[in-house]
Amino acid sequence: MSKMAEMQEASPNGRWLWIGLLGGATIAFSLVFACATPFVALVALAAVNMNHRDAFVVAGVVWLANQAVGYGILDYPQTFDSYAWGAAIGVAVLLALLAARASAQRAEGGLVLVTGIAFVAAFAVYELVLVAASFVLSSGPEAFSSSIVFYILQVNALGLAALVVLQFLAATFGLVKRPSRLIASNPG
User: Fold this and answer.
1) Residues near 77 by Cβ (< 8 Å), separated by ≥ 6?
2) Cα angle 84-120-168, degrees, rounded to a multiple of 5
3) How does DSSP assign the chain, residue by residue?
4) pLDDT tens digits, residue range 123-145?
5) How far apart, in whole angstroms, are the C-alpha atoms of residue 119 and residue 177?
6) What is the model's pLDDT at position 180?
7) 100 closest CA partner among 122, 77, 69
8) Overall CATH class of domain 3-172
9) CA 131 to chain centre
10) Is residue 5 within 8 Å of residue 49, measured between CB atoms?
11) pLDDT-derived band of residue 183, with 50, 70 and 90 as boundaries?
């Protein structure tokens, strides 16, 4: 069990603080990047540092926060297609989390390597789910051009770096404990 998971098990306040920090980061990311919110970065970090239940709570919270910002602040269109894409993104986020957890549980190595493996697996699944959704929902082929996919990868990589710094700062100020190992198989 990681130090983060130990802290979460011992302190419900620390657990909810970290979930709240990730939710707050999502709101900030959503305001800056709108349709390119780094969901992959968020779920990869959750998959590696949180128990199963909390990782799913984070996935749900970050998706809901993004949708709230999109429809409440960024004026996303109130159409069936827009709602359907929001649902597809929610499914992609959950499946990306599952991929990140599965790959992280099987990976061997230090925290950085395992996080990188989880990130790559989550990104691949996230993009594949959205490509599959594009066959049913309206979307032009340019939505999945190499330049767009690379941009989404860049946003997620930068998001992951920012979240790792946030986690480091939170640990430095004693808000959370530093993770030292992956949660191997804690279904908690």
Assistant:
1) none
2) 100
3) --HHHHHHHH-HHHHHHHHHHHHHHHHHHHHHHGGG--HHHHHHHHHHHS-HHHHHHHHHHHHHHHHHHHHHTS----SHHHHHHHHHHHHHHHHHHHHHHHHHHH--S-HHHHHHHHHHHHHHHHHHHHHHHHTTS---GGGG-HHHHHHHHHHHHHHHHHHHHHHHHHHHTTSSPPP-S---S---
4) 999 999 999 998 888 776 677 88
5) 21
6) 57
7) 122
8) mainly alpha
9) 18
10) yes
11) low
Domain borders along the chain are: 3-172
Q: Quick one: tokens of 177?
A: 């404990």
The type of residue at 161 is A
Contact criterion met (CB below 8 Å) for 24 and 69: no
Going by C-alpha positions, the residue among 32, 154, 43 that lies closest to residue 101 is 43
Determine the straight-line distance between the first and last CA of the chain, rounded to whole angstroms: 10
Residue with tokens 């910002």: 69
- Nearest Cα to Cα of residue 156 among 125, 183, 178: 125
Average pLDDT over residues 135-159: 86
